[in-house]
Amino acid sequence: KGAVKLIIHVVRQGDSIYKIAQAYGVTQDKIIADNRLSPSQALVPGQAIVIMVDSIPHTVTRGQTMFSLARGYRVPLNDLIAANPQIANPSRISVGQVINIPVKTSKLGTIDVNGYAFPSINRTVLQDTLPYLTYLSIFSYQVRPDGSLIAINDTPLIEAARQAGVAPLMVITNIEEGASFSSDLAHTILTDLQVRENVINNVVNTLQSKNYYGLDIDFEYIYPYDRESYNNFLRRVVNTLRPLGYTVTTALAPKISATQQGLLYEAHDYPVHGALVDHVILMTYEWGYTYGPPMAVAPINEVRRVLNYAVTAIPRQKIFMGIRNYGYVWRLPYTPGTAARTISNTGAVDLAASVGAAIRFDQTSQAPFFNYYDADGIQHVAWFEDARSILAKLTLANEFRVGGLSYWTIGRYFPQNWLVLSSVYDVQKVL
After folding, report:
1. What is the pLDDT of residues 347-375, one digit of tens each?
2. Ramachandran quadrant class, 195 (left: phi over 0; alpha: psi -120 to 50; beta: rest)
3. Active site positions, annotated
4. Which long-range contacts (CB under 8 A, 24 or more apart) does 269-272 make?
5. I need a labelling partner for 6 at 20 to 30 A (CA). Which of 66, 151, 153, 225 fits?
């Protein structure tokens, strides 16, 4: 357990990088580099900036003592005295004197981190992200109706992952060729015994020939009546792969009860998955989604409801809490059937800067958002993630003592996420 040297500064009107750097006793270059800011771009009121420091300078004012400073900054008095060896007599400090306030809280512990990536991911983004990952799930081998797999160009990602000490996971999906997740395709895979055996044989061949570490099954929109067939498929997969030394992970819809209705949920049997597989990824996002009304993508209050149920059905150490790495922009007033536009988390701040919007933070969902009018006078709202919303999610993961996190996807580099994650947790490595 090391020290967390993390401060999240929320930009106020009139702030500049220079002023913020002065206030925390760090260089402008460090703030710019850590947050990957563009030096020319104006800061946005409400924007979160991550400050990585050991200590911050405090100028003593009338009546202040080391004791009152320790209490005010919530730092143990002994730590405060230790951080200021230049002070001969701690019981006598004078107005105008600069005291170093240590920024120090212990890490929350060690956690597994999975990141999903498409084969087309930018290689620099991949290299920058691998140090923060335990697993890299490469998306995806689509299963055909005969049980064969559509090949993907995964070799460069597998090699990069292994060189960085990250375990590559093969992902299989019931995504139909040229289309999306298919309930009928899942039905064929799960109920035709010959197809099922073909899938498993092809998976084993791919795991071995491509040097994968394990398998991640992402079967979605399964017919409710195929629930037990899916459970039996999982038993067969686990019984085949585990003796060969491979791990098995499944991705599950975010359920809040065992009896939750709906095509997305009913065939995902939490207790059975929890008993059988090594890890379960909960897709705790998409409350705000492309064709839905404007709202936070992963509101903390909704994620909490899913975890409340999940920990009753699945061992905590096996649970990976899903985190979505982007946001959406909606037109207002919202009209059902219209599509929101996807935006990266850094792109959202750039957009706010370009339209002169101030970023606000919703306390209930623990997520940032802003409103603006475009050049045609049409109003929009953007919801996204920032350092504060990520910290809230990581704190929630710790509260429920889950074993891991899973990012969908790592394709757009979000520097603040990795700063916050590495300040709060040590990332487990299994290779």
Report:
1. 999 999 999 999 999 999 999 999 999 99
2. alpha
3. 220
4. 269/227, 269/230, 269/231, 270/309, 270/310, 270/313, 270/314, 271/313, 271/314, 272/231, 272/234
5. 66
Give the global pTM.
0.92
Residue 3 has pLDDT above 60, yes or no: no
Residue-wise pLDDT for 127-148, tens only, equals 999 999 999 999 999 999 999 9
**Exposed e or buried b per residue across 375-401, where buried means at least 16 C-beta atoms within 10 angstroms of its C-beta:** eeeeebbbbbbbbbbbbbbbebbeebe
47-83 pLDDT per residue, tens:
999 999 888 899 999 999 999 999 998 889 999 999 9
**Nearest-5° angle of CA 355, CA 365, CA 305?**
150
Work out the mean pLDDT of the chain and round it to a whole number: 95
Identify the band that residue 105 occupies on the pLDDT scale cut at 50, 70 and 90.
Answer: low
Euclidean distance between CA atoms 69 and 107, whole angstroms:
23
What distance in Å separates the CA atoms of residue 102 and residue 104, rounded to the nearest whole number? 6
